[in-house]
Amino acid sequence: MHSPNPIQCVVPDYVLVEIAKRGDEADRDAALSTLAVSTTLRSARSQAEAARSAAGTPLVATAGLREPTMDRVIRDAKTGVDTGSPIVRKEGDGRVGDPAVDEAFDHFGMTWKFFFEVLARNSIDNAGMTLDGVVHFGRKVDNAFWDGDQMLFGDGSERLFTRLTKSLSVAAHELGHGVIQFDGPLVYQGQSGALNEHIADAFGVMVHQWVHHETVEEADWLLGAEILAEGVKGKALRSMKEPGTAFDDPRFGKDKQPAHMKDFVVTAGDNGGVHINSGIPNKAFFEIASALGGRSWERAGRILYATLGHEQLRRNADFRQFARLNHRVAGQLFGVGSTEAEAVANGWASVGVEI
Predict the structure, then answer these.
(1) Which of 26, 129, 199, 215 sits at a 20 to 30 Å CA gap from 123?
(2) With pLDDT > 70 as the criterion, what percentage of the chain qualifies?
(3) For helices 339-349 and 300-308, what crossing angle results, to 10°?
């Protein structure tokens, strides 16, 4: 059985594997070191989930009555891997001068405000969950992770990736996995896993657009544009506007994301292609938002968020099932036959998913 909430990372393992195959000795060391951290975290996460399932997770009956208040803590692992490292900045503290600490703290705040002010959501779990982040996680780790409870940021090797805390879209993407975990969850395998990645990408991009006051037309629709190291041939980790064009580097290989079902990738790797085939729903969302114009979070984003939280969303939903529910939700929110419902139908049709 696949856990619905495994370790989720912004840099796919298949990219790191390509780097290990293609890069020089230093590149291979960095990639293999990052892959080792991913494997360790997945093992720890599986054990924690098993223990939590056996013990049962108590519900807090009064959680919904709490005053919505942002609560952030940032820990410094000092290149170690202790997720319970000492807190170096908490809510109410001033800047500490460490860029990683202050960037993570700021990006957590921007993401919290987006979910609260735009979607009326009280933190990741909608019940005031503390946003807990660990910076300087591991030695030159080329990744950022959501482990089900907190975010972990590597510093990057500076050969492949820079400090992972630099990117708001990366932080929002990973925290978005937390929202999906509590509202979905979508099983992290195959098409449901690709939908999981897609929604996290959409959150990451929308938070960036919201903070920078960008319209659909003004935005670049890129995820992780800030974290590619100097000399890497690429513009970001992923492009929602043009899946498959984010990078093409001798060490990384070429971006494998398809933009249409005719190019759907069947693979046993990447949990059945969750980071690869997410390009298809990503492109559909871009087309929906573009057809509606204005600000992505106002209509396209609202429809997507309501679809995620809909009681009829199956945890193992495929693209067509999700698209049909997405269209139904658009009709419920804006009216059957509305411009919004038509945009959703056309957006999915444009990537080969008929509803």
Answers:
(1) 215
(2) 88
(3) 80
